[in-house]
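Dear U.,

For the methods section draft, I wanted the exact inputs and outputs in one place so we can describe them consistently. I've listed the two proteins in the order they'll appear in the manuscript figures. Please don't edit the token lines directly; just add comments below if something needs changing.

First protein:
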Amino acid sequence: MLEHLLELAKPSARPRLCFVNTAGGDQTWWNAILHAMYYEREVEVSCLNVFPMPNVTDPAAHLRAQDAVWVGGGSTANLLALWRLHGLDLAFRQCWEDGVVLGGVSAGSLCWHVGGTTDSFGPDLQPVTDALGFLPYANGVHYDAEEQRRPLFQRLIADGTLPAGYATDNCVGLVYRGTELVEAVAEVAGPGAYHVSRAADGTAQEVRIEPRLLPGARGAPE
């Protein structure tokens, strides 16, 4: 997924890739792993932290200077609260409008949408409905990996708590241009993406979207 993120960015020079791990508490050991992943690669890697304070003088300017940003998983609720506290919600909006490629996993996917299901408040999933909303859809992450995810996501769309949206099994990503979904992509053969909407009878309607396997995906035909 990270390789695909950089391909979408189409940088004219050495690509600049920033990791933002607010949702996981900006752990320094994780930052070290991310830097090590790109050691001896022609990629300029940075990690933007807000714990215990922002680690760059102007976080908004740093983000806008990137070709791509990847947001890690963790607590969606904490991520949103801290981004708004530090003005990163506005900074990311400007990045998106400027053409910086924004991506992420779990909380780092949900945050760009209207909302979805989250374990930010405890082991029983609850809805989050006040995400950044750049994409006017609900987002269902870990659709095949956690038993509460699929039924709750469908119920929240059926009862109008969330708008229609897109869900993904683990190892599947959604690619948008602007606010239009253009494809789903996968790192592994088998998992899928799904469009979930409210049917005329008030129930949830789910339609599978077959993802395109990325180069090197496990289980892809040789």
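Second protein (the one for the lower panel):
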Amino acid sequence: MFLFVAPALVILLVFRVWPLVSAFRLSLTRWNGLSQPSFIGLQNYRDLWEDQRFRDALFNNIKLLTVLPVWVFLPFFIAQALFNKVIGWRFFRIALFLPAVLSPVVLGIYYGLVLRPDGPLNRGLSVVGIDSSNRDWLNDPRTAFPIMAAILVWSTLGVGVLIYLAGLSNMDTQLLEAAKIDGATWFQSQRFVVFWLMLPVVRFWSVIILIVSFTGIFPLVYALTRGGPGHSTYVVEFDIYQEAFQKSALGYSSAIGIALLGFVVLLLGILTRILRQRG
């Protein structure tokens, strides 16, 4: 039995556990990547507590959680429509999944061009009589963050729809038929039967989205806004990049990474507890 598990265990130890241990050890040092690391204990974590830029980045990540209901349930409703084979369901199933196969860097560069002051969006709005010829969408703190959040939700929409479609395909349809026999309306069937049958899938997708909102958005932010304007789209992942590769503070960036890991684990525990109580 152990021989079958050993390869996976070795891979887990080498590529997961050991890098995590090494990152924690590095977070206790001051190191620029060239000289010998010097042990400073918890000083990096004390500096992190007082770092306003890190607070701004963490706050922006937390702000993404405000769109969590849309992020979770929009693909659920779309998946239900596709499962019920609305008109054009084959086309929409392919079209919705296309953004998921594109690199976040490609999406960031593309929307950076579309949203330029002289880009297609402003020209299109001018054609329909909306004067926005001077609007720089990504350099306005009021619009940069909502745009980034919308692109992030859209780019992951296809994956969510695919996961929900898989859940709907494995759903026990006998319960739906029993509800119809008992006189339940379509809305009642969806609310009291389908939703509860799909609750494990909703939990799974919620956990995935929570992880992505903290650890999966660096490529998009880097290509789209570089954290600007100001710190309006500055996220923790981008802060780690800045500290490690722009300032050569590898020990401090490791401390940020460990702190981010701890915060995500805490949020996952809270989310799991809430979902279990709702279930």
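Candidate sentences for the figure legend, describing the second protein: Residues 51-278 form a domain with the MetI-like fold fold (CATH 1.10.3720.10). Strands lie at 29-30, 38-39.

Thanks,
Y.
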